[in-house]
């Protein structure tokens, strides 16, 4: 393995000091002089038509500066997804900013800007809305039936999309099978629960140019969607990058109502307007899609897949924003291409309902698919009396195989077998009992699941942005400023990208600073999503730093009267290869390049040459050269109380192949947080709605339960299998999403090992365990 | 009607005109610019707004500002008045316990109260002390490690 000075070390996060002393850099802290506060009025009905709105009383309230109702805003249809261009017409369905057609409880119908938040809130009560209530439908399978309430005027039977994938001859594959297994696996609606609420401040100048601060995962996406919805030029909108945001996990990949409404209110009042969600509003803005996955799988006695069929029903909610897209990622990466199998077919159905919108959430369709596939594999292994590890290894892809879906690529680094074997060793798989162990009412079990195939960004996937840019500028004190549009939502890019730049420049990690950026000043970057930033933005940062380094060595060559090709830079020193005594500090070289002064040398004053002049800077804008797959296996040990049905996760061992690990502590943090979100998905989290009105009844953290420190296991062990991805920056691949797809099926499989109860619908509540034990 | 009350915060006395319904969280952030205390839910569910009131960790979103006039309030800004990290803050940085950082200030305030009364807490005591503070990034793993690090003799 190559030796690195900076990469591979758990350097301190440069933003940690700020975050432990007060965290001033969050968008929620932005205030501007003269700023107004805006709030939204939301529909109490899940399905309705607005007959009329009268806002005159609200407008007259002292302190109210502007009111917007559907008649005041553009009725332009748009797609809110940051990561796909607005020109993807396929995605533009029937979502408009404020509509007279209400499709879910909580859909905004009006907005007010006032001098204080309290006045804005009070004004909402003065807006008189006359609704004609319509029959609502919340169950996707009911919504597909003839005669169901029509939600979208353009979708027959409320079906938004019915994609399929097919390979080989399915029926022939089933005829070859020794055994066939069938099952239906359901997942619930869950929320990302980022801690910083959605917030924005929009300012406008007298020419109508907008400056926007917002808690989002993509500043260029926000600029593009705002420009589209408001029919204004992109050049008239500047989105400022926050130093960091308080979590996102996918939820902040969409234009939501607040940004365009605040922009319109600012244009109307000529004042800055701030809009912040309440936590309830956050909960009903977007969530992971519930899916129902039917699987039929044919296997040989030796465990080889012969045929696999799946059908997925996705509840896209009131508008088809993410549904038609998330279903494809779900199908390809968690089912169709996850394992080797010659005969496969998949059918998908995306259905409108009167539920809240689906959105992106870490894994984007994969947690739902992984839940089905990895649960069923455990059932198959139980049926065949086969070891689940052996079964997966038999059907897994191998390093060097052609990429199973992106045919232009190969799986150049792919160590799933090492993940499985090393994780098994650490959890003590050999000693796993086939019969329940434990004392009294407590039973313990061990389970495993894998995430065989995923992405490092979106190269090769149609219509999804995938390129990055960076500016690296060296300073006269030997440090460097790195500017990119990449948002650090807590994943650590402010650290890892600086490490990549530092390694390439040959200076210390703490000598690189993540600098200011906005959409006016830095190159385009795709969003922070799809496990892409370390890989894709990392490649761009490395390229920019490499260009700066070449310039650095060129100037140093002039100064040392040496060929730049004979020079190297490490630890802040530029030296002649093999002659380390002939050297300069990086600071000396940069100072020379920017200084008008004559260089003093032992031989006397030396006039600066033209070649030495000019700031030392590197710029890149590029797509990454591939889309390598990270992969992972997870093992969990659980304890099930057969008296209460309670499940406790005792221990987690996670083994990942993510290529070269840039910052081990940051990578571990990703896994540990992913495990938490996965445990929540498996055992407790569930966004729930009143079955009559469709109103959210779990709109705060007292009712929406996510794991606290008490529910989390003390033992979470990360194993990183360090492969060397040839296309990655210093060998790195993506990480974030594979962390949280696996816990749910691994926990379900461990529960089966412990008490013999198979739960196929999430979350696995005590009631379902007790029902499985015949006690309810 | 607003009332002018003295708030004793981080050793300073602020005379603030407060509406009766204003929460301590809102006064800290909107009147006094003490923005280290965060609003995560405004309903006593997440702990991002945790401060110390007479040495005890409380949710400032569930505390009326008028109730605490004259009482000793400490916010995250009060832990490192001279800009030097205290032992717990330093441990959070050292242990890699900070990810998005939005929960961090409240988490540190909750943990600090534990360390103020318990010199070497057990793992269970640590987890219980921060059970009212949600974090969505870390799985609490490195947060617990940081609190252990800060409490090591």
Describe this structure in words.
The complex is a heterodimer of chains A (776) and B (153). Chain A is an alpha+beta fold. Chain A has 3 domains: 16-22 and 467-622, Aldehyde oxidase/xanthine dehydrogenase, molybdopterin binding domain (Aldehyde Oxidoreductase, domain 4), CATH 3.30.365; 31-134 and 195-247 and 252-283, Aldehyde oxidase/xanthine dehydrogenase, a/b hammerhead (Aldehyde Oxidoreductase, domain 3), CATH 3.90.1170; 396-456 and 628-776, Aldehyde Oxidoreductase, domain 4. In chain A, 27% of the residues lie in helices and 23% in strands. Chain A contains 19 helices and 29 strands. Chain A has a 7-stranded mixed beta sheet with strand order 3-5-1-13-10-11-12. In chain A, strands 7, 8, 9, 14, 15 and 16 form a 6-stranded mixed beta sheet that branches. In chain A, strands 17-27-28-29 form a 4-stranded mixed beta sheet, sandwiched between helices. In chain A, β15 (305-317), α9 and β16 (343-352) form a beta-alpha-beta unit. Chain A is globular, with a radius of gyration of 28 Å. The model of chain A has no long low-confidence stretch (mean pLDDT 96). Chain B is built from 5 helices and 5 strands; from the N terminus they run ββαβββαααα. Chain B has 153 residues and is of the alpha+beta class. Chain B has 2 domains: 3-78, Ubiquitin-like (UB roll) (Roll), CATH 3.10.20; 87-151, [2Fe-2S]-binding domain (DNA polymerase, domain 1, Orthogonal Bundle). The mean pLDDT of chain B is 97. Chain B has helices at 24-31, 87-94, 104-117, 123-129, 141-151; strands at 3-9, 12-18, 50-53, 56-59, 72-74. A 5-stranded mixed beta sheet of chain B has the order 2-1-5-3-4, with helices on both faces. The radius of gyration of chain B is 15 Å and the shape is globular. In chain B, 54% of the residues are buried. The chains are: A alpha+beta (776), B alpha+beta (153). At the A-B interface, α1 and α16 of A face α2, α3, α4 and α5 of B.
